[in-house]
Design brief:
Keywords: Calcium, Hydrolase, Metal-binding, Signal, Transferase. With about 475 residues, the chain is an alpha/beta fold. It contains 13 helices and 16 strands.
């Protein structure tokens, strides 16, 4: 009751514009992740079409990372790496867990999820006394054993799957897949009465209000601007010169940015803006065909290992940063976990199995080296490695490619034939890294191998007879 009254008083003070101090010195952290956004589809990324004033202002107050990467080129693997700080291939999360897809990999859809022995960023932040929450898209397993509340998060409002309508399901159009239902807590399914991006925004504001007395870590996992292309009429009206999915994308992006503005304004009203770290990034490159996103000047799209599939916008607003700074070295979303852990007072030595690095020493000029000598990507037989400015790509069906990203960010000038020794060197790097990885979990049952042997035996018997 006392805490409830204190929260009411704090809200009243904020309503009347009274500046209040945080109840704790440990910073709050809000991680905002958009879904399938194009690299160029923000004002702060140079777009003259998209309207993103909130994120543009955030960029002016943040450290920006023009060479930020995800560890996976599609949603599920990318998020698995972000949540664990580990290359997702180390624990076999190499493919997207989408309905029907896993039938090709010998496992039931619902049984494909983030392995239970992996610790998440939620677990790590809880160990530091943080209240943790995730609002929005989960996509880390549909079965109850993979539920966010069992994976280091104290609060969950969102859906377990990878995509759903932005409008509430009615009895007539209710989807039969339970992972698409909106859920509050554990198995409390309820459909919102508003546009989904707005619902996630309002829940975020409520989560902040409910956790003023302790440091909080919130993962705001928007599903915007992933398909389906659902947009509000008033947002569509903001872009009269655009058409088709490009118009819908602009409206959906604008709606997400408007939500961010409401959250930023609320932090200011509560007087905790200066004690709240905000990180914004995206889960992978834009799928240009699916949602008309723009990855310029990068080559490639979501699901590819070209820059357009794996390089993403990345902003970090720290309490001691008042104007935009730029960190030029390559970083990864793998680094979010150790950086947040350090911000919360955790020690780097605890993170011995983490592939990501704590970025704070690099940002504070305490470490003049680069965070990552190499960065790696892999999906089935495709793979890529970046070492310094060199980028090497291996394909199962065509010759390898080599690029100098310092001169060719668009990957248009393949240098593999000119530098064969560099190709050999980087192929060996990729091979050596792959020897440290696990086999994809959903292939471990080896049903395909068994079925193939049964067909061979049947064929031999038929031929003998």
């Amino acid at each position: 009751m006392v805490l409830k009254r204190l929260k009411i008083l704090l809200l009243l003070f904020s309503f009347y514009g009274v500046e209040i101090n945080a109840q704790h010195t440990t910073p709050n952290i809000i991680l905002i992740l958009s879904d399938d956004a194009g690299y160029a589809d923000f004002g702060f990324q140079g777009s003259q079409v998209m309207c993103t004033p909130a994120l543009d202002q955030l960029a002016k107050e943040s450290i920006s990372f023009p060479q930020a990467y995800v560890a996976g080129a599609v949603c599920g693997p990318s998020r698995a790496a972000l949540l664990t700080g580990r290359y997702q291939q180390r624990f076999g999360f190499e493919e997207n867990n989408v309905p029907g897809y896993m039938q090709n990999y010998c496992i039931e859809d619902d049984q494909m999820g983030l392995p239970l022995e992996e610790r998440t960023i939620g677990n790590y932040m809880q160990s530091l006394g943080y209240t943790t929450g995730i609002i929005g898209k989960w996509h880390m397993g549909n079965d109850d054993v993979f539920h966010p509340l069992k994976r280091g998060f104290d609060f969950f409002y969102g859906f377990r799957g990878g995509a759903r309508s932005y409008w509430s399901f009615s009895e007539e159009n209710k989807n039969s897949r339970e992972e698409d239902y909106m859920e509050r807590g554990f198995r409390n399914f309820e459909e919102p009465d508003q546009y989904l991006t707005d619902a996630f925004t309002e829940e975020t504001i409520q989560f902040i209000d409910d956790n003023l007395d302790t440091p909080f870590f919130l993962f705001l996992s928007f599903n915007a601007v992933h398909t389906p292309m659902d947009a509000k009429e008033e947002d569509l009206a903001q872009f009269p010169t655009l058409e088709g999915n490009r118009k819908k994308l602009a409206a959906m992006t604008y709606g997400m940015d408007r939500g961010c503005q409401k959250i930023f304004d609320h932090l200011k009203k509560l007087g905790i803006e200066k004690n709240t770290v905000i990180i914004y990034t995206n889960d992978n490159g834009g799928p240009t065909d699916a949602n008309s996103s723009d990855n310029s000047p990068l080559s490639g799209t979501k699901a590819s290992h070209y820059e357009g599939g794996i390089r993403v916008p990345f902003l970090m607003k720290l309490p001691n940063v008042s104007s935009q700074d730029i960190y030029q070295q390559p970083i990864s979303t793998l680094d979010i976990l150790p950086t947040c852990f350090a911000l919360g007072g955790g020690e780097d030595k605890i993170l011995e199995t983490i592939d990501g690095v704590n970025l704070l020493p690099y940002l504070q000029n305490a470490n003049s080296e680069i965070p990552h000598k190499e960065l790696y990507w892999k999906k089935e037989n495709r793979g890529a490695v970046r070492s310094g400015n060199w980028k090497f790509l291996r394909f199962p069906d065509r010759p390898a490619e080599l690029y100098d990203l310092s001169k060719d960010i668009g990957e248009t000038n393949n240098l593999a034939a000119i530098f064969p020794e560099k190709v050999k060197e980087m192929y060996q790097m990729l091979f050596n890294w792959e020897t440290t990885l696990s086999r994809p979990r959903w292939q471990l049952q080896r049903k395909y191998e068994k079925a193939a042997m049964e067909r061979i035996d049947k064929y031999k018997k038929a031929k003998t007879n």
